[in-house]
Design brief:
about 375 residues; globular; single chain; binds pyridoxal-5'-phosphate; alpha/beta; Aspartate Aminotransferase, domain 2; 2 domains; 4-stranded antiparallel β-sheet
């Protein structure tokens, strides 16, 4: 090969060869059912200087210790990651007082949720979850060919566990309980969740998605790990994206009993969890004290924001996560515009409500200033 040809391999297409997709006649067979897969809608991006409160991310940059650990691994980018990820799995197992064989990793807990669905449900099986809940559930279920069964939240914007029990059929394979729930921030009662799990047939997997568990300050917190220890048909989902502030690196995990865990590994994306992600997660588990300070600050900002919303007359829902849901209904677009005018980017579900992530004290100041400005206008 000549040196010219080699450079062409990585270079831009030659002038005049621009690809025009509209000229291609589409003849490829499409898998039936794909038209039912809804596209994932990401939280809006923010312009520089605005408060990005649309994706429940940490307002803090990565810890210095995490940046150092990751930087030290950059020279290994030409290598595939270790699929076994023994170091990280041992550290996670230790933290959660389970065995390493109970830990299955994925490229974010979204990928682990996908593994769980693919491991237990096939075409025409049913996967149940509350609605509204995590945006990814419906598409992940559709992608697998299974049928999403959405059980409406109750009037408190919380899981309606009795209705979910009633919705179980012979085709139900998996039930997601998102606790605290995204986007409403509500939690299920510990005793009620235990009774629910106990009433679910043992061949149906109950997955307790605890993406926001670190922010939960409920009096009697429903504890996914305790339910995992007690019941063979429970698995727990955790992520490094929220409290640990590693959303950009994509790493999450399931805690599952051995037969389930083995099946999850079968359907996992090979090499899905990068070496940098494994390294950052291990470093984060060694910095829990430092992270807890940050988590407590976010909880404080959540409470400040909630109190401000209530004082301003908004139908905010008390939250145990790192965001607050305002069930603004038909006024959602207005609230979104008001926040945007004060450089706050929130997550708005038109006609339903607005979810505002808890960020720094300055972020909360902006939200409160927006509410005060609206109040001044109405009063004028
Ligand atoms: C953000 C979130 C996750 C985590 O997703 P990652 O893929 O780990 O970033 C999982 N479940 C819920 C309910 C979430 O809101």
């Amino acid at each position: 090969m000549t040196s010219t040809a080699q450079s062409d391999l990585l270079g831009a297409p030659a002038a005049g060869s621009a690809f025009r997709s509209e000229r291609i006649l589409m003849t490829i067979h499409t898998r039936p059912g794909l038209e039912m897969v809804p596209a994932y809608r990401q939280g809006k991006a923010a312009s520089p200087g605005a408060s990005k409160l649309s994706s429940n991310e940490s307002p803090h940059p990565p810890l210095d210790s995490v940046i150092e650990a990751v930087t030290a691994r950059l020279t290994q980018l030409h290598r595939y990651p270790n699929i076994g990820a023994e170091t990280l799995r041992a550290a996670i197992a230790d933290k959660n007082s389970v065995a390493a064989e109970n830990i299955v990793l994925g490229a974010g807990s979204v990928e682990v949720a996908s593994q769980l669905i693919h491991a237990v449900a096939g075409p025409d099986d049913e996967v149940m979850f509350a609605w509204r809940s995590f945006e990814a559930y419906p598409s992940l279920v559709r992608i697998s060919g299974a049928i999403p069964v959405e059980v409406p939240l109750n009037t408190d914007a919380a899981h309606d566990l009795p209705a979910m029990l009633d919705a179980i059929t012979a085709k139900t394979r998996l039930i997601f309980i998102c606790n605290p729930n995204n986007p409403t921030g509500t939690v299920v009662d510990a005793a009620a969740l235990d009774a629910f799990v106990d009433a679910v047939p043992r061949d149906v997997l109950v997955v307790i998605d605890e993406a926001y568990v670190h922010f939960d300050r409920s009096q009697v917190r429903a504890d996914g790990l305790a339910l995992f220890a007690k019941y063979p048909h429970v698995a727990v989902l955790h992520t490094f994206s929220k409290a640990y502030g590693l959303a950009g690196l994509r790493v999450g995990y399931a805690i599952a009993h051995p037969p389930v865990a083995e099946n999850l590994r079968k359907v996992s994306l090979p090499f899905g969890v990068t070496d940098l992600a494994q390294t950052a997660a291990v470093a984060s588990l060694q910095a829990e004290a430092e992270l807890n300070v940050r988590i407590n600050e976010v909880v404080q900002q959540r409470e400040r924001m909630y109190a401000g919303l209530i004082a301003a007359g908004y139908p905010a829902v008390a939250s145990e996560a790192n965001f607050v849901w305002v069930s603004a209904g038909e006024h959602s677009a207005e609230l979104d515009a008001l926040l945007a005018a004060h450089k706050v980017v929130a997550r708005t579900f038109p006609g339903e409500g607005v979810r505002i992530s808890a960020g720094s004290a300055e972020d909360t100041d902006r939200v409160l200033a927006a509410l005060a400005a609206a109040h001044a206008e109405v009063g004028a």
